[in-house]
Amino acid sequence: MPQPPIPPDKAPAERSARTGTQSIERVVGMLRVVASRGRGGMRIADVVNASGLPMSTCFRMLQRLEAEGLVVRDAMTRKYHLGPLLHELGLLAQPRYQLAELCEQAMQAIADETQDTVYLSERRGVESICTHRVLGDYPIKALTLDVGIRRPMGVGAGGLAILSGLPDTEVEQVIEANGARYSKFGAFQPGFLEQAVAETRNQGYAFLDSAATPGTAAVGVAFPSGSPMAALSVAAISSRLGPERRAQVAKIIARQVRAVCALLPSAAAGEQVSAARNRAPGR
Predict the structure, then answer these.
(1) What integer pLDDT is reported at residue 110 of this predicted model?
(2) Stated pTM of the model
(3) Spatial distance between the Cα atoms of 36 and 181, rounded to a whole number of angstroms
(4) Distance CA 51, CA 208 (A)
(5) What's the pLDDT score for residue 159?
(6) CA distances from 251 to 110, 114, 232, 236, 264 (A)
(7) N or C: which end of the chain has fewer CB within 10 A?
(8) How far apart, in whole angstroms, are the C-alpha atoms of residue 199 and residue 194?
(9) Can you tell me the distance from the alpha carbon of 108 to that of 91, in angstroms, rounded to the nearest whole number?
(10) Contact 183, 162 (CB under 8 A)
């Protein structure tokens, strides 16, 4: 059924609202681009390449964001980094619970048993973000991610594990939304993720070898079951994650994931109590 035309007296307001929404989306997208390199920062040419926007547009946006304290530009390296205002706002943000803190003991246990690097990845819309990392004692370490790095969901064993736990329709939406971004990662050509999702569901854990980082493999397990919001993964040089050992590592991760899941209800309840206290009169 066709939508009725916008009355002339309301048309400017409707157009203004759409323009405002698009501006917000563009600003958020720019901040995500700058954040995609973690604390390494990005030169403007890198921002242009990652965002797909014209150089002049990127330059104007970054200038405005810098004036507002949302990004800063290093005078020596000429790289842009996330700014102090974001840090200040982040201090006020109250998450439902600190998942990294809940996973600390489990991640350390995995690192002790496997001797490899353990990552916590959390879902953020159609992306996954590394929120914690624990190093094992093996001398050759797979440092494929820094804390704070965002990637399209499915890139990396943690993100693939989360993606594979979603309903089919949502998997399709995520893959479609990230379509252009996947091409920046070597192995992630059309059809690759659909096959990887099917294999993950069949074996009960995600596994990637040299997909995003040559010579590095990783195993990931998502949680909670049925509605995954995060994943724990182990990364190592490829030679350490052959078929037999990768299955063993997946069992180690799954055991610790069950321990973390047992903590989630009590953690959420604790946050609800805290929120109720904050809303109480006199607070």
Answers:
(1) 98
(2) 0.68
(3) 12
(4) 26
(5) 95
(6) 10, 11, 12, 16, 20
(7) N
(8) 9
(9) 26
(10) no
**Average pLDDT per block of 10 residues along the chain, 283 residues long:** 50 55 82 80 88 88 90 90 79 67 95 97 92 94 87 94 95 90 80 94 95 92 92 96 96 96 69 41 43
Q: Show the tokens assigned to 125.
A: 């819309």
The Cα 244–Cα 133 span in angstroms is: 24
Give CA–CA dist 28/55, Å, rounded: 17
Is the CB of residue 175 less than 8 Å from the CB of residue 191?
no
Yes or no: say if 96 and 268 are a contact pair by the CB < 8 Å rule: yes
Per the CB < 8 A criterion, the answer to whether 210 and 216 are in contact is: yes
Strand partners, 119: 133, 233
What are the residue ranges of helices labelled H in the chain? 11-35, 44-51, 55-67, 84-92, 99-114, 157-164, 168-177, 179-182, 192-203, 243-279
Q: Decide if 101 contacts 108 (C-beta within 8 A).
A: no
Strand, coil or helix: 85: helix
Those residues whose C-beta lies under 8 Å from the C-beta of residue 146, and which sit 6 or more positions away, are 38, 39, 40, 130, 133
The residue whose two tokens read 């990783």 is 218
The pLDDT value given to residue 42:
87
Residues 6+ positions from 131 with CB-CB distance below 8 Å? 99, 100, 120, 121, 122, 147, 148
134 closest CA partner among 34, 235, 57: 235
Task: Please state the φ and ψ torsions of residue 280, each to the nearest 5 degrees.
Answer: -65, 150
**Residue 79 · residue 42 · CB < 8 Å:** yes
